[in-house]
Design goal:
The chain has about 180 residues and is α+β, with helices and mostly antiparallel strands. It contains five helices and seven strands. The chain has a seven-stranded mixed sheet with strand order 1-2-3-4-5-7-6, sandwiched between helices. α4 links the parallel β4 and β5.
Length: about 180
């Protein structure tokens, strides 16, 4: 079950970001509570996204938090939505990232003005790359990782961008996990 992330979910996000394994390809180290609070204050301050049906969703399975997913707009590029997700290690390898990413693509394309969905990850993050490919995104770019990501595993391999156009999207009909 997905529902919009609320300020009351901050403790869940702090716990998630405190796990070094979860943060391996994000910043290469766990994030502290103040850092996570600042991250989520910024994310939840996008009321224009919410009005369009975009934003951040918390996922729960049998009442247990299993991560967050997003479909958010790009500043100055309202025709593009970026998708993202972050799951605790207990949610890895169970198809949850794929299921949630499909929901985010569906959510983004339900906004009449979104023409393209994009995502990026570290080139070395094969798990995340597999999810993006399963949900229909295709790699369109690669670039060097920014210098402040040197502590991230695989930073020398750079980052990769994926995309899916509205015209290229078909609603999934079968289980892809």
């Amino acid at each position: 079950m997905l529902r919009p992330v609320r300020v009351a979910d901050l403790d869940l996000m702090v716990d998630l970001n405190a796990d070094p394994e979860v943060m391996t390809y994000i910043q290469g180290r766990p994030a502290g509570p103040a850092e996570t609070a600042a991250e989520w204050r910024q994310r939840l301050d996008h009321q224009s996204d919410v009005a369009r049906g975009l934003g951040y969703w918390a996922g729960f399975e049998a009442g247990t938090f299993v991560g967050w997913w997003s479909a958010s707009s790009f500043k100055g590029q309202p025709e593009i939505s970026g998708i993202g997700y972050r799951l605790p290690v207990t949610g890895w390898g169970r198809g949850l990232a794929t299921e949630g990413a499909e929901a985010m693509i569906r959510q983004a394309f339900s906004c009449g003005d979104i023409d393209r969905v994009v995502a990026s990850t570290m080139a070395a993050n094969t798990g995340s790359r597999r999810v993006l490919e399963k949900v229909g995104l295709k790699q369109y770019a690669s670039w060097d990782a920014v210098p402040d990501r040197r502590q991230v595993v695989g930073w020398k391999d750079g980052e990769v961008g994926y995309e899916l156009s509205r015209a290229g999207w078909t609603e999934p009909t079968a289980d892809r996990s």
